Amino acid sequence: MSDDTRPGGAPPEHGERRSDAGERASSGPDRDRRGRGLLERYVDSVADRLGAHSVAGKVLRKVFPNHFSFLWGEVALYSFFVLLITGTYLTLFFEGSQDETIYTGSYEPLQGADVSAAYDSVMRISFDVKGGLLIRQMHHWAALVFVGAVALHMARVFFTGAFRRPRELNWVVGVLLLILALAAGFTGYSLPDDLLSGSGLRITQSIILAIPFVGERMSYALFGGEWPGTDIIGRLYPVHILLIPAAIVALLAVHLGLVWRQKHTQFAGPQRTQRNVVGVRVWPGFALKSIGLFFLVAGVITAMGALFHVNAVWLYGPYDSGAATSFSQPDWYIGFLEGSLRLMPPWETRLLGFTINNLVYSAMLVPGVIFAGLLLVPWIERRFTHDDREHHLLDRPRDAPHRTAAGAAAITFVAVLFLGGSQDVIAGTLDVSIGHVTTFLQFAAILLPPIVYAGTWRLCRALARRPGPARTERAGGVVRDAGGGYHEADELEAEGSELGAEVAESGEAPARLGGGP
Amino acid sequence: MSRTGPNVRAYRAAIISFVVAIAGGVVAALGYGTDLGEDWLGIGLAASLIGIGFGLVCWAKYLDFDEHAVEEREPLVVAPPAKQELHAELRGGLEPMGRRKLLVGLLGGSFVSMFIGFVGPIGSLGPKPRGERDRTSWREGIRVVTADGEPIPVTTRTFDQLVTVWPEGHVGEDDAQVVLLRLPPEVLTERTVRNGTVEGWVAYSKICTHAGCSVGLFGIDNREPETLRQLVCPCHQSVFDPADAARPVGGPATRSLPQLPLAVDRDGFLVAAGPFDRIVGPIAWDET
Asked: Is residue B156 part of a domain?
């Protein structure tokens, strides 16, 4: 990673290649075929039919800012690709059915057990399909990584103010994608019909039942009658493999399309203004790195799938009403909801002869407030700042202390809920009573966010007052000098060398960095 | 391109990465095809993918594409005249339409009617609730049996142990699952006894009134001055007092577990003395 200050721009062969291509692109289809390489001929044969030469050129020259925090969105996208690929493989074996069958596969402890066809097929994938367990675990790990990357991406966008005008719509699309990611995760988690997922479904059914007015009817419609019924796995299956992925793909297209149209935000820095984007062009730098990132993400997920067991359904056993296990925690991204259910005080309201169930508070009100708050972030902030201007330059978190403090407080609240989802594990580990842990976390959920807000705000103010370079990108980096040698920019700056000084204030874009031919 | 400066390292790293990637594929194939062990399939694939990824990134580094290209933004907001042009066009198209109030009204009505038409198939997804949730298979005189179908002699001397039981002939029925406990009779409260206990035997619906999980844990704490007994739901840690009609004493549950009245039949086995007195498990908005 280096600040590019080479006066001559790219090595000569790049420049030549590009100007060559430009010349060819401008020539018509009648031009003699000789002189065009195979690549150019293929590109022309498509582009000539779509009139796409100028658009394609724009695509290749599109600029992506260079900052590590921009990585999370890509990681999310690529883990989603891994999900699609591994998920497709799993559908070739999975049976979305609750038909009863007797397990006869090669996992001895369960041989002869009454299981559903769904559980049976998951066991077959895990033990009798060679490589099946790897793909299954990759799928599960990829889901955990996907939601995590989405959350980190969202945090980046929030704390830098990238959601402000003109990107409010894309923020909303992003929140919807997060909700879909959670829904994808939850439906997938439920499909194996093991003991844990069965308990999760039972809780879901109870929540639906508690919905005022339509709850019972809705529960009957979804489950095909009284719990547990024989329909739910077969119904969740198409939702998990068709409806939700299709919705994610559609919203992803909108999400990326909006980024394309509105262009990326960037941190302030030399050359960087509200009216430009500074960074790497798609071709070839960004493409090479981003494709590399895809393989890295896929590789890390594969390594996780190969080395670490996840969702070991053979240990949980098939779903069996009447059975229950302690220390049953859902996948991490449902943890906050689990915690909301566990930490909610035993409140239930009778109103005009109707019952406002405890679950209405814990499973509807709390997540409802969280997601409504997320959706409305751009408008909530605007109410306070009255700032309706376009923003393409990002804030450093410290420079928007109230926003940063609010974000930190919200994360604290969700984190306390998350801990609440494992309060039995905490109590077991610390050897204290569950009741005490619960009470402590109930107070923490109320008291900690304001404290964190105040602390973060003060910290931001202190950091903002600290003297330092005004720009947030790397202050140093490696510089190539006129003779072709490389130096640390910081080092040069410290020595007061001319080159270093030049680096520090390089204001103009070198010639080759301009928009295009 | 000349290989000077630190980029030589990136070049070498790319070479090593791609070699690792090639080797990874071979390891994966061996892991699958030989008795090397299936673990190597995943490890080989991971090495292959990470090798390709790291190699590509190093390649990009080696070519030093870490540039500062500048792309100008086109303004998103256009000048007022251009806006007004679009507004005029929109208005121009709408105005003649707006005057056909009848057609607009009918179109709206058509949509409403169409949606109502689609409600039917949605309703087919599940039957109408007809009070099934109020009833379980427990009736007066039906025997209490374990998961294996064994009836329970009232004389069984196992105190403070939780057994999951069902009505005879209905083992495994979700809404009929019951926790059966024998507690020292003197700890049972008056109302618990009044609800139907037999020599310290008490039975409660096993479905948590909070969110429907099975209340599968029975805890007994002898440290207290008075021994403390608790039924705990593992899902959300609701706690019920089995000595006092399964009253909720901790966690999010608000309602006690319905108690199953017990009796003894002629052969000395435990039977139900009647059904539950209310709905088991979580409730809907119009229930109590």
From this structure: yes
Task: Look at B68 and A509 and tell me if their CB atoms are within 8 Å.
Answer: yes
- For the stretch A263-314, pLDDT in tens is 999 998 888 889 999 998 888 889 999 999 999 999 999 999 999 999 899 9
Contact A278 B69 (CB under 8 A): yes
Task: For residue B284, give the nearest of A215, A300, A350 by CB distance.
Answer: A215
Task: Look at chain B and count its residues.
Answer: 288
Is the C-alpha dihedral spanning A516, A6, A262, A286 positive or negative?
positive
Look up the pTM and report it. 0.88
Tokens of A4: 């590019």
- How large is the ipTM? 0.92
Domains of chain A, first to last = 12-64 (no CATH), 67-267+279-324 (1.20.810.10), 334-472 (no CATH)
| CA distance, residue B152 to nearest chain A CA (Å) | 18
Nearest CA in chain A to B3: A484
**Contacting residues of A for B174, CB less than 8 Å apart:** 227-228, 321-322
Question: Hey, is the C-beta of A201 within 8 angstroms of any chain B C-beta?
Answer: no
* Chain A: residue whose CA lies nearest to B70: A278
Asked whether residue B87 is domain-assigned, the answer is no
Q: How many domains does chain B have?
A: 2
Q: Of A4, A224, A292, which has the smallest distance from its Cβ to B125's Cβ?
A: A224
**Domain that includes residue B246, residue range:** 134-272
Whether A373 contacts chain B with CB within 8 A = no
| CA of A209 vs chain B CAs: smallest distance (Å) | 5
Q: Are residues B50 and B151 in the same domain?
A: no
B47 belongs to a structural domain: yes
Contacts of A159 (CB under 8 A, 6+ apart): A397, A403, A404, A407
CA distances to A131, A281, B231, B248 from A276, rounded to whole Å, are 48, 13, 64, 62
Please, which residues have CB within 8 angstroms of residue A29's CB and are 6 or more apart in sequence?
A: A44, A48
The model's pLDDT over A233-262, given as tens digits with 9 standing for 90+, comes to 999 999 999 999 999 999 999 999 999 999
Task: Name the nearest CA neighbour of A289 among B244, B64, B133, B178.
Answer: B64
Q: How far is B47 from chain A (nearest CA, A)?
A: 7
Residue B126 lies in a domain: no
Q: Does the beta-carbon distance from B53 to A299 stay under 8 Å?
A: yes
- Domain with B156 in it: what CATH number? 2.102.10.10
